[in-house]
Design a protein that fits this description.
The chain is elongated. The strands form four sheets. It has a five-stranded mixed β-sheet with strand order 4-3-5-14-6, sandwiched between helices. Strands 7, 8, 11, 12 and 13 form a five-stranded mixed β-sheet that branches. It starts with a helix and ends with a helix. The chain has helices spanning 3-15, 18-25, 29-43, 59-84, 105-115, 128-136, 183-187, 202-212, 226-234, 281-288; strands at residues 48-51, 54-57, 91-97, 119-125, 142-146, 154-158, 162-169, 180-181, 190-194, 218-223, 240-243, 255-260, 266-267, 269-274. The chain has 291 residues and is an alpha/beta fold.
Length: 291
């Protein structure tokens, strides 16, 4: 088995068929098919189950695919490291971020650009589960997200804790100029809550606090998108509960931002990056700004 055979196998697995893999590799189908056949003969296993034109990895194929992915990750990172040597800090910094954590990015990236003007930024938004998965797949360099998440694969810098606050349309308040609100009062309002696509997150933190105080909330909407929820709040459809820094980038006219007086809830955020991988210099410098 050589590196070319492994690359061909890897692209066939990614594309799910010989035809698409050949187009991606810019080679004809016959030599690609022959390379796969030769690889299977050398290893004395079938790497794919054929279903017409589509191909699915066998158990042996899955093992080889996982190893190949790690090898090509390491090759790509080695190329990046060699290219960066002696060239200064440049390239594209790929940051994943929850929308509710975006307030951390503008100032820090401005600082980075001040000293390293050749660095560009690409921001990917998503919930914590999605972004951590993208980090493992090397699609991102660093992620700023809300806890909890599985931390096994990551190094991290923990960011300051902050309180959850209630955001309520003024028209739903029976008295103006509130500064706080109780859980019991919140339970009487229609609630719109952040809820991850997968995994445990802010939704469970809030719901567990209601359960702890034996109060039943009236939830009318759940979404992983904080902008959508705050838009609905501004339309007067209900109240939401979010980490306080979420509101730094949003208009708070016609709504009241109230502390929850009898049920303090705090949100924890982290800056994470993948263990045991080469980090581009731009990512290293960005991380240093949080230390």
């Amino acid at each position: 088995m050589n590196l070319k055979q492994l690359r061909y196998f890897y692209e066939i697995a990614n594309e799910g068929q010989i035809t698409r893999a050949a187009k991606k590799l810019h080679i004809a189908q016959p030599p690609l098919s022959q390379s796969l056949k030769s690889l299977e003969e050398d290893l004395e296993v079938s790497l794919f189950d054929r279903h017409g034109r589509s191909m699915e990895l066998t158990e042996a194929g899955k093992v080889l695919y996982d190893k190949a992915k790690q090898i090509f990750f390491q090759i790509d990172e080695t190329i990046t490291e060699v290219k960066e040597t002696g060239k200064g800090i440049r390239g594209t910094l790929r940051i994943g971020c929850n929308k509710s954590c975006f307030s951390y990015i503008p100032k820090k990236f401005h600082e980075l650009q001040t000293y390293h003007p050749n660095v560009k930024l690409r921001i990917i938004e998503g919930d914590s589960y999605y972004l951590s998965k993208q980090l493992i797949e090397r699609e991102l360099d660093v992620v700023i997200c809300r806890l909890p998440i599985e931390m096994e694969h990551f190094d991290a810098i923990h960011l300051p804790e902050e309180e959850y606050v209630a955001v309520i349309p003024n028209e739903l308040l029976d008295q103006p100029h509130y500064s706080t609100i109780t859980i019991n009062k919140l339970a009487t309002l229609p609630l719109l809550l952040l809820h991850r696509i997968r995994g445990i997150g802010q939704y469970e933190i809030i719901i567990n606090k209601f359960k702890e105080l034996e109060v039943q909330p009236k939830i009318i909407c759940e979404s992983p998108n904080v902008d959508m929820l705050l838009g609905l709040v501004h339309e007067g459809l209900g109240a939401t509960i979010v980490p306080e820094s979420t509101l730094l980038e949003h208009n708070t006219e016609n709504v009241s931002v109230l502390r929850i007086e009898d049920a303090k809830m705090t949100s924890s955020s982290v800056l994470i990056w993948l263990k045991d991988r080469y980090l581009p210099k731009a990512a290293e410098k960005f991380i240093d700004l949080f230390i």
